[in-house]
Amino acid sequence: MTAQSFADRLSHARALTEACLDGLLGPEPLAGECERPETLLSAMRHGVLNGGKRFRPFLVLESTRLFAGPEDAALRVAAALECIHCYSLVHDDLPAMDDDDLRRGRPTVHKAYDEASAILAGDSLLTLAFDIIADDATELDAKARLMLISALSRAAGIGGMAGGQALDLQAEKIAPNEAGIVTLQAMKTGALIRFAAEAGAIISGASDDNRARLSQFGTVVGLAFQLADDLLDLTADAATMGKATGKDVGRGKGTLVSLHGPQWAEARLGQLVAEAEALLSPFGDKAEILVEAALFVATREN
Ligand code: GRG
């Protein structure tokens, strides 16, 4: 597959996901009669419909396609996952966490609205995600929906993203060793990516073996995603050195890149892409786009 056709598929997934999210965050309540406070809904839309690569939704859609699973259900699961990813960014940007003014080139939700709205928008996006999957409109049998809800809540919660974020905050005081860094990154960034890859197997009713294989693939892609992110931070730090605030400079501390250097990280990224490819080799050409996805993550520029 050419780089162009991979880019086309990613952009197609992005367009589908954004149309789905636009509908889910529209004026109509998702289920039942309820009022949606206008400002809160607007803050949620600000946090979600603001650009973004939509890489996690893309993985859900493509892992479902690998098993010829139902695309409509996959799209709703992809949108639900993106709601959780966006909630995490909204909360991560808050003054109590990273205290950022800009996200995806636009004011963060607490800057465009206020802190209370940003907290509530994040909370509402988190719960909306589970509502989307549980709803009958996600046309999967009840067992599959429950499996997705269970896997996603674990990926987002204390054993996954939120727990990883807590470990990351703790790492500012007590520097973790290499194993600690890998664990916290696998939780904070990797857990949602692993879920994205595994979701296609659940949506499609694939075998336990295939679900485990996709889960392992997601783990490897998650590690590559974070390592590439740390390399990008290093480049950003070098570019802003001298004019940045103290908070910005040295973001690369406590990462595998700061421990081993950029050349090691580049080589490790190559290994991770090879591991991802090997994991998907039993699927042959059908998995080509997922292998491209691993390469995309390792070589991305934003
Ligand atoms: C607040 C519970 C809670 C968790 C926050 C995701 C996160 C945990 C923090 C974000 C900090 C960060 C920059 C982590 C590095 C990896 C990462 C998640 C990058 C952002 O994801 P992308 O690159 O962003 O997919 P887009 O904007 O493309 O969606």
From TrEMBL:
Q: Does the keyword Transferase apply?
A: yes
Cofactors:
Mg(2+)
GO:BP terms for this protein?
A: terpenoid biosynthetic process
What is any one of the record's Gene Ontology cellular component terms? Answer: cytoplasm
- Record-level Gene Ontology MF annotations: metal ion binding; prenyltransferase activity
Keyword annotations:
Isoprene biosynthesis, Magnesium, Metal-binding, Transferase
**CDD domains under this entry?**
Trans_IPPS_HT
The residue stretches assigned to a coiled coil in this entry are: none
**Where on the tree of life does the source sit, at the highest rank?**
Bacteria
> Which Pfam families does its entry note?
polyprenyl_synt
Family as reported in the entry's similarity comment: Belongs to the FPP/GGPP synthase family.
Q: What is this protein called?
A: Probable farnesyl diphosphate synthase
Q: Which organism is it from?
A: Martelella endophytica
Q: What does the record give as the organism's lineage?
A: Bacteria, Pseudomonadati, Pseudomonadota, Alphaproteobacteria, Hyphomicrobiales
